[in-house]
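Journal club prep, notes for RB
We'll compare a predicted complex against what the paper describes. Inputs for the adenosine-5'-triphosphate case:
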Amino acid sequence: MSREAQQPVDRAGVLDSAACAGGLKPAPTAGGVPTAGGASTAGGAPTAGEVSVGDGFSRPADQGGEAADPIFAAEQAHLTETYGKLEKIGRDAVAAMEAVAAQAAEDKKNMADELAVNFATWDDILETHADIVAMNNIIEAHDMANSVQAERLRAVEVLLREPYFAKIELQFKPSAPTKELYIGSAGVSDENYRRLVVDWRSPVAEVYYSQAMGPVSYEADGRVIRADLRLRRQFEISRDTLHGYFDSDVAIEDKLLLASLSRGRSAHMQAITATIQKEQNQVVRHADVPVLQVAGVAGSGKTSVLMQRIAYLFYQHRGTLDPTQVFLISPNPVFGRYIDRVLPDLGERNPEILTWAEFLAPLLPAGRGAGEGDVSYERLQAIDAALAGFAFERSDFRDIAAAGTRLVGGDAVAKVAAKFDHLPAGPHRVTLMNEELSARLEARLKGIAADEDTHDEIADLPIEEQLRLFGETFEPQSDEEARALALTYVREKYADALRQVRAMDWLDVDEIARRLMGRDGLTSVEWVYLKMALTGLSNPDAKYVMIDEVQDYSAGQLAVMARYFRRANFLLLGDPNQAIAEGTAPWGEIRAVFEAERGAVSACRLMTSYRSTPAITDLFASLLPPGEAMEVSSVQREAPAPEIVVAADADEWACALRRVVDDAAGTDKLTAVIVPYKSEARRMAKVLGEGAVVLGEHDSLPDGGVVVLPLALAKGLEFDSVVIADASPRVFPVTDLARRRLYTAISRATRHVTILANGELTELLAH
Ligand SMILES: Nc1ncnc2c1ncn2[C@@H]1O[C@H](COP(=O)(O)OP(=O)(O)OP(=O)(O)O)[C@@H](O)[C@H]1O
């Protein structure tokens, strides 16, 4: 009942390994070399079927001992010395921070002792103020000194794990000696300001990533600097031990990549700093543009590149870019947790990582879910068109009320609206109205705070409540004090009214929609869009927004994000062939939406796949539309060919599934049983019994074992082994959507794929 997948698959010619339209200067050619069938290996690694004999790294054992290779010995000595220096820098930074802390404490104490707060005369007030400013300046100076040391310490912490991964030797002038630079995941200088390790994001490090020898150039401070790259040496290092080195004198060789790929998968995504490929580097270091759209085949490193780009941006905009200004929209929460260690490992903080539902929730009224996302761009444009001639009516406004009290009535809101009748209904008018309503609410709260009934109400509060509110019991010595204390209480009591004004909830968006569009039941996408169009609701502080798996969003969802993050630069990464839901925007439409909302869209492609064995890549590549080819960067990993099992009936199928899962459960690898939908996952778990865990949205990927999960949750993730539970025509009919779903599922596997079919195999695989 079993047969092996046929392969290799017939594929058309190989496309350019990568292309970026606009934004980057052209780089010299390098990268993988395509084989006849379209598959290639980076650095001349063995193709499928060949046996790997060594990986090209020089190791002491290869040389008959360290002494036999003077380069190895010299590099180990340099590493030992660097490691010692890093440890010392780390120790010195901690000591400096301790000293600063002690000094700060001492200064604060002295200053507090000396600070004579005196408000008697205007001169005294000025003097007191000057003393306080001086004190704050000293504290600030301490903070600054500490933050410099803290940054140094963070770099050292990163580097102590692996001080550097490469060395380059550059000759800037023909007669001058070459300059040696060691490149690492962070940069640090010694006490004489000599660069011990160069940060991978620094301008000069670019020549390492361009993967060419000889004449190279890079840009620093707006100037193009030319040099001759004489040596490009890669290292395998852990802490202070050199395991091997490799001199890449041929452009196409990247032994470090091969070594990295052969290490296999882990439960958390790893940084690819040392092995970023040339075409990936073009995305990582791409010029700042309003929108960059990156199309990449499965496993081409889109997510990895995205993480490296964020780290790069933090470096480039050090001191001005805060992680709270960067948003990463991720396909699901499991994926969010899968990637959340990459940046901390690089010594950086994570950006805001949100799913679509998490992004939308705070913009929606309480109790309303994200719901259906399938909304066309036209439907949103219809909202804009209808709003053009829209005039407010009384029914569009709601009372501002809290704690059972109407604080500003809908009639009053309508009067405020009438004051600005000369303006069209839109953000300008609504903002002016909101300012006035805010002032009215404030006046109303002050009135309540001045009311004796309120003071009595406060006096009746339990003592603990009074202590919590005021830090003391409510015993005002004057009317003024009573009003001030009462205002604290009133603001808390009517906090929801203040929130309503902040959120402009006095606008009845549903009622407006009914009049505007002539229909009920707006989707959440339309609802938020209308609210943005009316109020200007947005996040103007966001500077970068990265949308991974961008092919999984509808045009409406994308337009909402483009408009909400109105000043941000967007990085959109996706694979048109991994769109797994109905109603998502085709690749060209994604571009069109962003062009309409944000102007020009730059584009890059990543066409080399790194995740899977060549056999698995061939299998999922066979599902690509004709003419779309990819290259494969893979190392020889002794892995069985994909297996396809067609069972005659349900019993035989269940039996086969249990066998596959039982086999997998006995290993330390992670196996995913991928099912089409959530409901199937539960059904499958019953078939499998205790051997399998159903993975939910709130879980993280385990290191090993067997997990059952729906395709939507498997998005963006990878597993040692993938089991497609049922590849029958019922689950995968011959449609474009099913083809993309199957491609996505198979391409999650790094080493092994088993495809089961209950009764009959989908025609998508029948060749
Ligand atoms: N330059 C590289 N060096 C080392 N490993 C790499 C490199 N590029 C990609 N990889 C590895 O390939 C695998 C796939 O990368 P990643 O998940 O970033 O790809 P993707 O394009 O986002 O995939 P998909 O769209 O299929 O989810 C990961 O294990 C990643 O570590």
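Talking point for the session: The longest helix spans residues 70-114.
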